[in-house]
């Protein structure tokens, strides 16, 4: 991938924050995970990151919020991630199906029943 206007650096920083957030979540630090994932989302959005890359961070923020017991906020993040991916890659994309599957697993009553129902 060619680096243009710092986009490679942005993508790398976003990914590092996202991975650190997921490490924190695996270690049981839900508060720390949320903070890191919010920074990852904000950095990607402010820097004009690719919507699918932003969706990765948003989706994982939803996981952290779910772990914190904040179901309404978690559902909003899952829905936002689905929208971001759908706009860029479509409902049939692997990432869309992954997010939808995780949403259905952790919040079955809130997730759309099938692909593109979130549209």
UniProtKB/TrEMBL annotation:
A Pfam family reported for this protein in Swiss-Prot or TrEMBL: TPR_12
Domain of life: Bacteria
Keywords: TPR repeat
Signal sequence range: none
InterPro entries the UniProt entry points to: TPR-like_helical_dom_sf, TPR_rpt
TPR repeats: 55-88
Transmembrane segments: none
Name this protein carries in UniProt: Tetratricopeptide TPR_4 protein
Source species of the chain: Solidesulfovibrio fructosivorans JJ]
